Amino acid sequence: MLGLIVQLIKFIINMILKVYKPKWLLRLDDWCEDKLGIDIIKENKKFHELYPIIANRINNLEKNSHPCKELHEFDAYPKLISRIEELEKNIKK
Question: In the chain, what are the domain boundaries?
């Protein structure tokens, strides 16, 4: 049971680290490593050490990526909706 909780905490921390690296989280990792012998961020460091080119490409992609857009944010959305409504009217006739 304790192992499951530790794995869950590791997962949550790794997800937070993918978005940003807060100083408090890095201090928490250092504390866990010193006091409990649990290294949470080690897996991420290993990946960057083993595959530096891929890690750099991933970092560049994450910097250049943008949040997804919803349909109503696209310029063609009003035309698309009017076309769909027109087709629906034709089907009902």
Answer: 2-92
Share of the chain above pLDDT 90, in %: 4
Answer whether 21's CB lies under 8 Å from 41's CB.
Answer: no
Q: Would you say 12 and 41 are in contact if contact means Cβ atoms under 8 Å apart?
A: no
SS (H, E, C) 12-53: HHHHHHHHCCCHHHHHHHHHHHHHHCCCCCHHHHHHHHHCHH
Specify whether the CB–CB gap between 13 and 20 falls below 8 A. Answer: no
Angular region, 37: left φ>0, alpha ψ -120 to 50, beta rest: left
Q: What is the pLDDT of residue 26?
A: 76
